[in-house]
Amino acid sequence: MWLATEQSEPPSHAVPQQGWPAGSRVNLAGDLAQVLESALAAWEVNGSVVLARDGQRSGGEPRPERLASEQVTLDLAQGH
Q1: Which of 10, 23, 54, 69 is deepest in the core (most CB within 10 A)?
Q2: 14 to each of 4, 64, 67, 80, how far by Cα in Å?
Q3: pLDDT tens digit string along 11-58?
């Protein structure tokens, strides 16, 4: 396990590589492990994440107008 106190940058194997474009704005989805891996992958490409309070797990779907207003470029809830 890597600790922030050990070095300034995490080892490259600690960050999942998704091949996303630089600056991706990602709507996260999935279980806790998937969300954490996706957040790390987004931050690795200097991107950002969007968290929905009423996401798929609570029976809701992200509203397209909300995703547009958040300027989402990658919607993991829809698989693309």
Answers
A1: 10
A2: 12, 32, 29, 23
A3: 556 677 788 999 999 998 888 888 899 999 999 999 999 987 655 554
Structure tokens at 67: 């995703």
Burial of 72 per CB tally in 10 Å (0-12, 13-18, 19+): buried
Q: What is the structure's pLDDT at 14?
A: 67
45-54, Cβ contacts within 8 angstroms, sequence gap of 24 or more? 45/20, 45/21, 46/22, 47/20, 47/22, 47/23, 48/24, 49/25, 50/25, 50/26, 52/27, 52/77
Structure tokens given for 39:
């957040």
- pLDDT at residue 57, as a whole number: 52
| Phi, psi for 34 (deg, rounded to 5) | -65, -40
